[in-house]
Structure formats: structure tokens, C-alpha cells
Amino acid sequence: MDDRSDDHDIEVEGGIHAYERKISGILDDGSVGFQQPLLARNRKNTTSQIAIVGANTCPIESLDYEIFENDLFKQDWRSRKKIEILQYTILKWALAFLIGLATGLVGFLNNLAVENIAGFKLLLTGNLMLKEKYFQAFFAFAGCNLILATAAASLCAFIAPAAAGSGIPEVKAYLNGIDAYSILAPSTLFVKIFGSIFGVAAGFVVGKEGPMVHTGACIANLLGQGGSRKYKLTWKWLRFFKNDRDRRDLITCGAAAGVAAAFRAPVGGVLFALEEAASWWRSALLWRTFFTTAVVAVVLRTLIELCRSGKCGLFGKGGLIMFDVNSGPVLYSTPDLLAVVFLGVVGGVLGSLYNYLVDIVLRTYALINERGPGFKVMLVMAVSILSSCCAFGLPWISQCTPCPIGSEGKCPSVGRSGIYKSFQCPPNHYNDLSSLLLNTNDDAIRSLFTSRSENEFQISTLAMFFVFVYCLGIITYGIAIPSGLFIPVILAGASYGRLVGRLLGPVSQLDVGLFSLLGAASFLGGTMRMTVSLCVILLELTNNLLMLPLVMLVLLISKTVADCFNKGVYDQIVTMKGLPYMEDHAEPYMRNLMAKDVVAGPLLSFSRVEKVGVIWQALKMTSHNGFPVIDEPPFTEASELCGIALRSHLLVLLQGKRFSKQKTTFGSQILRSCKARDFAKAGLGKGLKIDDLVISDEEMEMYVDLHPITNTSPYTVLETLSLAKAAILFRQLGLRHLCVVPKTPGRPPIVGILTRHDFMPEHVLGLYPHIDPLK
């Protein structure tokens, strides 16, 4: 790995590679130096060690999902009593309960705030329109939107840039083993909640559902930090969770809880975590995730019941986001199935085009966002003004429609919401386009899904609204506010689905509300490429199980068509942001390479009993996070691989100053004086740095026994193993380091170490461009 980025504490352990090791000791001038390897490979991994997280560029690291079996860990497990194991099990379920409770509360308060803030803005605008004060109405509408948008952008730009966007790509990357600064920090959680409220209330074509997934993950990470000395939360039991493996499980529960809170879809939340978010899954995690989403469902149900008395302001009766479509018998014939196939094909094409355009816009905005926080805020303000002008201006070109017969008292609508908004129309008329544009996104979806009357929305209105949502959704995603893609995609899909339903009305038995649902499903499948979880979420959203066969069919078709053009939107964003995501399959060209073909060098390693100055210099000169430890004579008959020592553990060992003046093994003394919790990972990346150590010249000449902190059972593969098999093994086991050992005896005991960066296409194809399938 390229070591030119030593300014940052970043993941470059992939550069710990090649054949020979060794550290010479102390040079004549007193400094510590390294011997050149006998068979040094100057091959270096030049894949980027930084990525875009939210709206900022920051360094990235890998996570330690592997159980690190060193002597301290084994001693800790042997010393645990049955009551401590029971406490650990109870605490896992207790934390799952707290994650569900907190995420449910945040989801409810988020909806409550959005409905009241947006409701006040829409009421103010509507009252001024009724008084025919059109210019004042526009400035009030645009001004409220601009203030809210500026507030959301300022929070993101100046406090937590990692909170920008939906957060789902970052959560997905974290669960794959990628960590980045402040991705799940408390400041990110704060900005995610309030930035999402302000952004959605500001009238942007964004949703709060994606940010809720990130919010749930942040809540889980906060609860799973294992305590905090800063805030004096050092409860003894919490020490069990000071590792990445347990935090990964909690964050998976948090991501599922976020979907459950956003859509009131507990089963859909579990399936979303399984299908899209998590990279590793097991039955025990399924139980805890399901329990977490069940808690969310109960919390939301309880809070909604409290709002039925009307004490929640403009939130009304607390509908949250539940779209009831026609619950009558769903009858369909061959022409209807052909229409569904058509919807699926169109949804796949439009969805893949949507992803392509989002990628272009994100790359363009990155050039603006990198100029500083001020430019981020100005970009958000420009998009806000554009959105306000379109939302307020387009209804003027729409024709007024007479109120339907039997709608006396409901048409025109009075209040902040309703599907019969009068806008500038005369009495007993309504403007159908303003009913969609001058409303919250949730209310607009309810209007599109409704089956009360086929002619509530004109064909021209549906076409204009589709173009508006499709284009503005692309333009809006990528600005520095928390923004989700679910709602814009559902809005666009529902509008063109209802449009198709209107056009096929004479030959179809399905009503336009069901066509809207199928259009939304096709567009979701075309953009996000999920099937099972989306199907269940939509059915839980609409409370209509009879639509299951048609929804399944349209999702399968749209995903199949869209896969012919590009990847899903979240996979595309992960790649665009530079996150080194490990796929669940190996690339075909990897079968032509062996593990030894991609390891980089030179490799740095330590003896079991090593000089303090040598270790300090290695940590100072490199930013590697894992070092091989070699057993050598006189401690063994021949050189052999002892295991791997982590950088963080070496720093703790050096800070404890457990040194010896003699080059002898004294690991038993370290085991008696240290505990496994002393080497536990600090929360939020606040671990020791090499600059925190104060070591005297005398101590530099002393020795330290590395065996107690060395993982003596690392995963190893032969150098001749297929790179494809190595990649699958690395991903499925959730590794950070994979040791490559020689096939023949008489050579150094380790050839190199594979990390996730060594499997990235840009590294492999950079070394062997002739195997690039695109050339």
C-alpha cells in the first residue's frame, strides 16, 4: 500500500506485503532503521485510502470483525463466570429493545415536526391565495422553504458533513467492514434528525426514510459504544461491547429499525437489513432484528393512538406514512398482465436512467462541495429557490377542474392538505396539480394511490408532475442536506403508473390506484434493485395483500431490465464515493491470478521479543494497522509465523511500558498485569495515536514480548490460492487481514498480507491491465 498518506490515521495495512522483513535495530546516529528485504517487491497498492462520506472527503479504515484470539482474549473468556455470560446475553436483548424504542420515538417525532412545520407553511400560503395575494403567497412559500433549507444545509456543512445524503451507502459500507470518521458519531445523529426535518419540510423532493436508516444505525452505535469515560458512562457490563463484531450486529438492528420507523413496516425492515444492508447474517441476528422492529411497531402504534385525540397539532390523527389503496377484490385478465409487464419494463428503463443521471449530478456537485461549506449552503439555496419556483409556478399552467359530483364540503379543500386545492380557481373548482405540488410528499403519494375517482387528476397533470418529480429528484439528491431516495422514486413511479392506468382505463380491470402502486414498485425495482424487501414494504405500506402477485411480477421484471444497463443506486453511490466495498462474488478475471500476484511490499514484521525502538519507529514511519509476528531462534528451532499484532494493541502495550532489559520471553507477567478490556477498541475512533506515547531513550533500548497480544490463529492461505477464492473467503469471514504463506519450505514464513484494498479492481487491474475485461 502506498505510504505517502502518513498524515492521516488511515487504513494502509495492505502495504504490509512482500517476502522478507527485517528490522536492523539502531543505526550509528541512534535512529532506528530497517533492512531492505532480500526479495523486496516495490509493488505498492495505490488504491485510494480516502472516500466521500456524506458531503466531505475523509480517511477510511477497515473494521475488525474477526475474533482476535490472542492470549489476553483466551484468558478473559476462561475467567468469565456463567453469570457474566448470562449478563452478556441479556444485555444484547436489552440494547436491541432500547434501539427499537429510541428509533421509534425519533421516527414519530420526525414525522410530527415535518407535518407541523410544513403544515404551517402551507396554511400560510393557502390563506394568502384565498385572499388573492398571489405575490405575497409566493414570497411566503419560497421564503419559508429558503429558511428551512438554509438551516438544514448549515447544519450539514458546518457541524456534520457526514450527515448529508441518505446515509444508506455509508451504513451498507460500515456493515461490510469499512469505517470512516464520524460516520456514526453523535454529531451526525443530531444533524441527521434535525437536518432531515428541515429538509423535508422545506419542500425538497426528498424523503426522510433513507435518513431514518442512518439515524437508526447512529442510535445503535451510540448505545453500543461500550460506555464513555468522558461522560462517566462506564458501567461494567458495557465493556462486553467494546468490539466491532458486536457493534456490527447492533447497527444491523438499527438499520432495520430505521426502515420500520420510516414505513411502519417491521417485517420489511428485517428484510431490508438482510437483502440490502448487511454483509453477514445468521439466525441469532435475525431474531434480535425482528425483536427490534417489533418494538418500533409497538412504539409507533402507541404514539399514533395518543394523537387521535387531536393533540398533535397539524399532525392530525397521526397517519404517519400509510397508504391505503382500494381493498376490494383485485381482478385482472391477460391485458392487465401485459400492462403490468409494460410497467415493469418502463420502470426498469427509467430507473436505470435515473441512476445514471444521479451519478452525473453527484460527481458535478462534488466539484462544488469541495470548495468549502459556504458553497454547499449556496448550492442548497439555489436548488431551494428552483424547487419553490417550480412548485408554485407550474399550477398556473394547469387547467381548473370542476369539483366532482358528491364532493360538496370537500371540494375545494380547506386546510393544509387535501386533493382538491383551489389555488387560483373559481368557486367549485380545484387545481389538481397544486394538490400534488403544494402538499407534503406523503400526502401527494396518498392522493396518487387513492381510488376514489379516476378523473381526479388529468393526464396532462400526471405527465407534468412526473417530469417535475423525476428531474427535481435527480437535481436535489447530492446537495448538503439529509435526503432519501425512497419518496422521490415512489412519487415518480406512482405518477407514471397512474398515468398508464388512465390511458389503459377502457381495456383494464385494475383501477388507477392499483396502477399507481405498481408504477411505484416498478420504479423502486429499477433504481434500488431490491425485490423481497421492497415487495413486503409496499404491501405493509398499502395494507393490500391481494396485490402480492402483481407486485412480485413487476419488481422482478423491472430489476431484470435495469440490471442490463447499470448497478443499483446504492451500489453505484458506494463505488462513486470510493468506498472499498467487498462484493459477495469474485470478478471473473480473479480466477486467472493467484494470491501472491497482488500482495504489495515491502513487508514489515516483528520478532516475538522485539526492541521497543524498532516497534516505535515502525509505527511512526508507517500507518499500517497489522504486523506479522515471527518466532525466531533461540525461541524456536526455525523461523515460523506466530501471528498478527494490531497497531492499536501495540500502542496500548507501549503505553503501559511493560518492558524488559533482557531479550527474553515474559508474556506471563504481561498476562498477570493486563486485562483484555485494556486493549478493547475505543469508541468513535478515539484510540491511542503514536504521538500520544512518551518513551525515553533508555526505554527505546529495552524489549517487549508481543506474544500476549498476537493473534496466534490468523486465517492463512497458500500463495498459489486463486485470487477469486481468496476474495470470497475474505468477504464471507469478515476479515481485515488474510496471511499469505509460502507453498515450499525453506523460505520466510509469510509472503504477504491481503487486505480489502488488494481485492479492489483498480489495484488488480492496475497491476495487470491486460486482463481488464473492458479492454
TrEMBL record:
The entry's keywords: CBS domain, Chloride, Chloride channel, Ion channel, Ion transport, Membrane, Repeat, Transmembrane, Transmembrane helix, Transport, Voltage-gated channel
Domain (CBS): residue spans on this chain: 709-773
GO molecular function: transmembrane transporter activity; voltage-gated chloride channel activity
Top-level lineage group: Eukaryota
Subcellular location(s) per record: Membrane
Xref: InterPro entries: CBS_dom, CBS_dom_sf, Cl-channel/antiporter, Cl-channel_core, Cl_channel_pln, ClC
Transmembrane segments: 90-114, 134-160, 181-206, 250-274, 280-300, 337-357, 377-397, 462-491, 503-524, 530-557
Matches recorded under Gene3D superfamilies: CBS-domain (3.10.580.10), Clc chloride channel (1.10.3080.10)
Family classification: Belongs to the chloride channel (TC 2.A.49) family.
PANTHER family recorded: CHLORIDE CHANNEL PROTEIN, CHLORIDE CHANNEL PROTEIN CLC FAMILY MEMBER
The name this protein goes by in its record: Chloride channel protein
